[in-house]
Amino acid sequence: MPEALLHVERLNAFYGDFQALFDLSLDVNEGEIVAIIGANGAGKSTLLKSIVGLVRAQPEAVRFAGQAIGGQRVERIAAMGIALVPEGRRLFASLSVEENLRIGGQMHRPGPWNLEQVYSFFPVLAERRKMPATSLSGGQQQMVAIGRALMSNPRLLLCDELSLGLAPIMVKEIYAQLARVVGTGMAVAIVEQDIGQALKIAARVYGLRTGHVVLSGQSHNLSRQDIAAAYFGD
Ligand code: ATP
Predict the structure, then answer these.
(1) Spatial CA neighbour of 150 closest among 118, 175, 127
(2) How far apart are CA 111 and CA 144, in angstroms?
């Protein structure tokens, strides 16, 4: 078997003396959507941050496209083709929608994504391109955050809790668009509390509890019992 696009093996992560991830292993293959589920504090965000370089990782614990990237600088990892849509969106309040999107394009990675393409995916952003990003609704701000990540033409898109604080109808719309994005050949890993959405879109799932992988498998093979066990323990 060739190595997966993202290959995480025995990753440990710490905040000072506190260990948040324990020997965590996980794969994301080219063109695949993987969901990462688990209760608050399970380590989902820490895992994404370790992959993109925001939390320190051991060099060989994170491999991307055949290279060890653990512990490398955030900019270098981004330039290699991993983009994060962070929890809470983190848009620049003083910048317009378009300026926020352009920040994602600063990497100048070749690929299909540019302003026109993002606007054709999210037409409402084209209408509001000149407005301050944070004056938009929560759902529209989430579209800006996704668009900004896409502008870097990533091979792997990491999404942290896209549904957080959004109305159910908006969550549905965002996920419908995300499914189309994947059709362009990108690999996606989504961290979600909204398990229904996550399982609908993802072929495979990992469940985390207290920094350990306690569940992994094909979405359609998972029972409610499996999922409850991943959240609350057996
Ligand atoms: P949530 O859904 O609440 O975001 P999560 O599964 O993403 O949860 P993490 O945010 O990765 O979980 O947190 C994992 C553990 O690390 C938790 O015990 C949390 O309290 C701790 N932690 C997270 N960030 C920090 C930090 N900056 N400093 C110290 N501990 C942290």
Answers:
(1) 118
(2) 19
Q: Which residue lies with its CA nearest to atom 31 of ligand 1?
A: 15
- Chain segment 160-182, per-residue pLDDT in tens: 998 888 888 888 888 888 888 87
pLDDT at 177: 85
Q: What are the two backbone dihedrals, phi and then psi, of residue 129, each rounded to the nearest 5 degrees? A: -55, -30
CA of 43 to the centre of ligand 1 (A): 6
Would the CB of 18 count as within 6 Å of ligand 1?
yes
* Whole-structure pTM value: 0.92
Name the strand (E) or helix (H) holding 28: strand 18-28
Contact residues for 76 (Cβ-Cβ < 8 A; gap 6+)? 53, 69
| The predicted structure's pLDDT at residue 234 | 62
Centre of ligand 1 from the C-alpha of residue 115, in Å: 34
CA 60, 62, 67, 70 torsion: positive or negative? Answer: negative
Residue 42 alpha carbon, nearest atom of ligand 1: 6
Rounded to the nearest whole angstrom, what is the distance from the C-alpha of residue 62 to the centroid of ligand 1? 19
